[in-house]
Design brief:
Blueprint: H1 2-21, H2 25-30, H3 36-44, E1 47-48, E2 53-54, H4 58-77, H5 84-103, H6 107-126, H7 131-160, H8 169-175, H9 179-193, H10 202-209, H11 212-222, H12 224-233, H13 242-258, H14 260-264, H15 269-293, H16 298-329, H17 335-350, H18 356-367, H19 377-380, H20 382-402, H21 412-435, H22 446-472, H23 478-481, H24 488-524
Antiparallel strand pairs: 1-2
């Protein structure tokens, strides 16, 4: 089976090379089919090899990544952009890099997948070649390379401790004399990739600068590389690290709730959606922090994290793509399909009853319910849904004000997105029923439904009150003008560095001018 997996991964790599060198319209339209061999091999069953594997973590994640990238490629193929072929090729390269991370059986292969994903994501962000895209790509590259360097150091220490194979990595880290240093490096390196507060600033900046399908894979799959890294390398279940676990839980909670301010104080719907992703990744970081501090809960937290990652990747990726789907098909015969699909995805993100978010969040709450922390994390988790609701309402208001629905007829791009919208919910419920114990799957009783619904209703009530106050003109004037740049802290730091660089360049230019003037004067005499 290992060779089948290797061949399956080679197919999108070969198609990517063709698209980046000598593409045709037919090859662009057929690009989503290049992912079919990977999906088929994934469905055939587990794979255990020396360098590649498909296990309980990799299989469900690889399946959703394949579906999400296929939808992004199908939507990209309908673009009238002259550079569609190169964007499709880079998407396939990004898929191969992410897939390599998911199927890696050893630390070196895992790190190689991280680097490949970094390179492809950078080129995708840069692809529009606008000043905004260049700045976003530069910021991403700096942080992503820093992440890869930190992880390379961590991998060297892990391998030296006897953790070359990923199956041996957690116990090796737990037993290593440098285990504390390794855990710190892993939290930092993968925290950048997972867009975890306060290392999150690159995602809103890049998502706003990139095309919609690229933004969808950034929020849906690229950030999951950080989560998978934590699940593969951290000593979850092998050693109790309450200090590191508490740090990660606190940081995760700050990120999950702190995204509300910059996510609302923006005029770009994609920025609001990106901050929603940062908040959801904070939710996942909290689950990992609980597993890190309480080994007895590690297995339940790991399975829950994978279920939640599948839900979030499908729902958030589809919701971001809904921006372009609405602009292309929203005024045509498919208007009802687009509106219905977007509603399903939005309800899934917020955790509404019967949606994929409901089962994922219910399982997470049950998994961390016995966490030995000073703060009862289960008491604050429902309010993450309230924050998500407020961010989605803000994105909807902005999209309605700026977006203009298009009249395009239904085609493969629309139907692939519709499959993504429905498949995410079905797939998450199926995975939960197969993996989790019955008490971790929500029932259909009124109490459970109300527990999922009230945080959303609270968010809608707050949003309605704010919108009503805005229309009545009773909000302070600053609320109409104050805006926080995408990337908040990162943007502030980058802007300061840019200003210093500009001043240094101006001083250097003035010095050259004075020097050249003096040289000319002496030569004249």
């Amino acid at each position: 089976m290992t060779w089948l997996l290797l061949v399956a991964l080679a197919v999108p790599a070969v198609v990517a090379a063709a698209l980046l060198t000598r593409a045709t319209d037919g090859l662009v339209r057929a690009a989503p089919l290049a992912l079919a061999p990977v999906v088929v091999v994934d469905l055939l069953g587990p794979v255990r090899g020396v360098a590649l594997q498909l296990d309980l973590v990799g299989r469900p994640l690889l399946l959703f990544v394949g579906v999400l990238y296929a939808a992004a490629l199908a939507l990209t193929a309908r673009s009238a952009d002259a550079r569609t072929a190169s964007r499709s090729g880079l998407l396939l390269v990004a898929f191969v890099g992410t897939a390599t991370v998911l199927v890696a059986a050893d630390a070196v292969t895992f790190l190689a997948g991280c680097v490949a994903t970094t390179v492809a994501a950078h080129r995708l962000i840069l692809h529009p070649r606008t000043p905004r895209a260049r700045r976003a790509a530069r910021l991403y590259l700096v942080l992503a390379v820093a992440s890869d360097v930190v992880l390379a150091v961590a991998v060297v220490l892990v391998v030296a401790a006897g953790g070359l194979r990923l199956a041996d990595t957690p116990p090796a880290v737990a037993a290593a004399p440098t285990g504390g240093v390794i855990v710190g490096l892993l939290l930092l390196g993968f925290g950048i990739k997972a867009a975890t507060f306060p290392l999150h600033g690159w995602l809103p900046i890049d998502e706003a600068a990139a095309s919609v399908p690229v933004g969808a894979v950034l929020s849906g799959t690229v950030v999951k590389v950080g989560l998978v890294g934590w699940l593969r390398f951290l000593p979850l279940g092998h050693e109790a690290l309450p200090g590191w676990g508490t740090v990660l839980v606190v940081v995760a909670l700050v990120g999950a709730f702190g995204v509300l301010v910059p996510g609302v104080l923006t005029d770009d719907p994609e920025v609001s959606l990106a901050y929603s992703t940062v908040g959801q990744m904070g939710f996942l970081a909290l689950v990992v922090g609980v597993a890190l501090g309480a080994p007895d809960l590690a297995e339940a937290c790991l399975l829950t994290a994978v279920v939640y990652a599948v839900h979030h990747g499908m729902a958030k990726g589809g919701l971001i793509m809904a921006v372009e789907v609405w602009e292309r098909y929203g005024a045509g015969r498919a208007r009802a399909v687009v509106a219905g699909g977007a509603l399903v995805l939005a309800l899934a993100i917020t955790g509404a009853p019967l949606g994929s978010g409901a089962v994922a969040k219910y399982a997470a709450k049950r998994a961390v319910g016995e966490a030995p922390f000073l703060v009862d994390v289960t008491a604050v988790l429902p309010f993450v849904a309230t924050v998500s609701t407020l961010l989605l309402v803000r994105a909807f208001v902005l999209l309605r004000a700026s977006g203009h629905p298009g009249p395009a007829a239904p085609d493969a791009g629309l139907w692939s997105w519709a499959v993504l919208a429905v498949g995410g919910t079905i797939g998450t419920w199926a995975l939960a029923w197969l993996w989790l114990s019955p008490e971790k799957v929500p029932g259909l009783d009124a109490v459970t439904a109300w527990g999922a619904a009230w945080p959303i209703l609270l968010g809608l009530a707050v949003a309605g009150a704010v919108l009503g106050a805005a229309r009545a003109g009773v909000l302070p004037a600053w609320t109409r003008t104050l805006r926080i740049p995408a990337g908040d802290l990162l943007d502030a730091v980058a802007s300061r560095v840019d200003r210093r660089a500009e001043r240094s360049a101006e001083r250097a230019a003035d010095a050259r001018t004075r020097r050249d003037g003096g040289t000319i004067g002496r030569s004249t005499r």
